[in-house]
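Cross-posted from the bioinformatics board.
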Amino acid sequence: MVKFVTDIWDTFSTVFKGMGITARYMRKKPVTQQFPEERWALPDRFRGFVHNDVPRCTSCTLCAKACPVDCIYIEMEGKGKDRRMTRFAIDYNKCIWCSLCTEPCPTNCITMSHDYDHSVYLREKLVYEFVGDPVIPFKPKKAAREEEAEA
Amino acid sequence: MSRRALEHIASEIGADVVETSDELGDASVTVRPSALHRTLEFCRDDPRLRCDLLLDVIGVDYPDRAERFDVIYSMRSLSTGERVRVKTRVADGEPVSTASDLWNSANWAEREVYDLYGVPFSDHPDLRRILTHHEFKGHALRKDYPIEKGQMCYVPEKLLTDEEIRFGPQLYGRTMDRSDAVVEEEEISSDYLTVNLGPSHPATHGALRIEALLDGETIIHSKSEIGYLHRCFEKESEDHTWQQIIPYTDRLNYVSALTNNVGYVLAVEKMMAIEVPERCQTIRVLVAELGRIMDHLVCVGTNLVDIGALTNFWYFFNAREHLYTVVERMCGERLTTSYTRIGGLYRDLYEGFEDELRHSLGKVEEAIGEVTALVQRNRIFMDRAVGIGAISQEDAINWGWTGPCLRATGVDYDVRKASPYGGYETYDFDIPVGENGDVYDRVLCRIEEMYQSIGIVNQAMDRLKPGPIFSEDRRVTMPPKDEVYNSIEGMMNHFKLVFEGIQVPAGEGYGFSEGANGELGFFIVSDGSGNPYRIKVRPPCFPIFSSFTELVKGHMVSDAIATLGGLNIIAGELDR
């Protein structure tokens, strides 16, 4: 009998308690954002599309090796002084935005940018080519010497 | 301590013991296949060992050996804390005697070894494929199975056999109430209904499939199928360097990716005997607990949605959003964090982290308080949750349960207290336990665990002191950039770490941590090269889900949904 009465009391009291909490929320502002119109501030470390700053790239292929899904394609031709980088492409179909490629980069030229909404209709368009004409890979020591000479 | 356990086993089993080792503090004994069942039974029943929890059954393939496969039973004693591994070596096609009569958890674990390695288990009650499709040819984790080979499988598996559907009621102890009438055989089955739930049903929270035989609304018998989200984590990791596996661990339990990241690197560091700086250790504890809080918020929230309480879900997801904002600022991603590195962390914490986190934790506490007030004594919730999906302590241990689900039955087994790792011994926290092991206790256990985790996070924040976050060990840590430029050793070291990867010394080890759902283990075999030879994940919800058939027997369909939500099955971790 006691349990019967406490059960009834519990039932009613919890309903009112619950309604009280819900009523409090009615006075609060909505927490949602209307996404395409309103955008949130991206944090500094946001891992968006990978960007390669080709003029500073030494084409050492460390990033391609570090990538767990093999989405970075680097092609080179020639040897020694004639070495040219003919292709640096990132396949964003595969990229998992893990940032493992940015860590070993000796010149910090490959970075995670803040871009994120690049939807396209064709998969081929998600393979980004960074090199058009063959470029001479960056040589850090030579650049340092030139800087010294300028100074 | 493990020495003594090995002596006990050796004295009992005698000449059938091939080899013993106590590498990394775990007792490991190799026995002949004929003595395997006897050894396992001895380990379980001997009062000095009492290995009552069978954690996992692991297969390893050595194609060059005559006895090609290692089958390893990994056990833990809840009373002594001893971890014992019993290993046996078998040739291709040679059967291993099953342990599913000793532990229920061996049932699915052995099916997995059979599926991925093709080791047959004699007397196994239900030896079918589990992670791959039933039409799949070959065994995927054998070393001679090409990693890029795909197969097309079309026909879905029929889970309940015709016999089970027709005679199910009799098989499962129900008699028909029609004994006086002459009934045609076809008519018998028409009284019972098979219902297929999943694989993409909103209430399964992941791709799982359950086929249930119903009498009215009551489940008489059911069978479950998993593997829809099998992504070959273990096969893939054999093709990657140790560092490259970290992003893959995010996708195991994607609700608490941070906890998985920490668990994996702890296991590798244990193999390499690496000490990380104090700051790194503290941050790892902190993020692992954040992962736990977020996991519990999702689990409790979605469990309540399944029961019909949608409001709580929004309150918890709002709180989780506050935590995710902090996590996003910390590591750049919300879900796939990849925050840890072997020997360190991806980045240090950012400026103003502590204030933001304290603010977010305040919001979480507020939300937990509100949800507790809404549901704890609520009649509707109690009627739906009390006594539903209940399991006794003994059964839960026998099924290999760990984590909050096991603690809800009253067993105070928590890896963080039972065998502390990563500095947990220095934190002050309690382990909440339940009483009946039903859905209600599981929800309340998780809610209390969140409060404890918030306590740990606060303690960790108080301890944060400036300092390095990477270990000084050059075997794992890349040298600073100026060293790479200016010295040939630094450059060689840098390139070697990327091209060849981290070299983990040859051997095998089991690294464990308390994941959000229970004991998350990584069994690692290394051959000393840059890639792992074998990584076996011990996902906490795999043994938990294997008991689902037993849990829901005799309950209503809606109770099965409530039970499933309370178990917190994460398909990414279940199927790997």
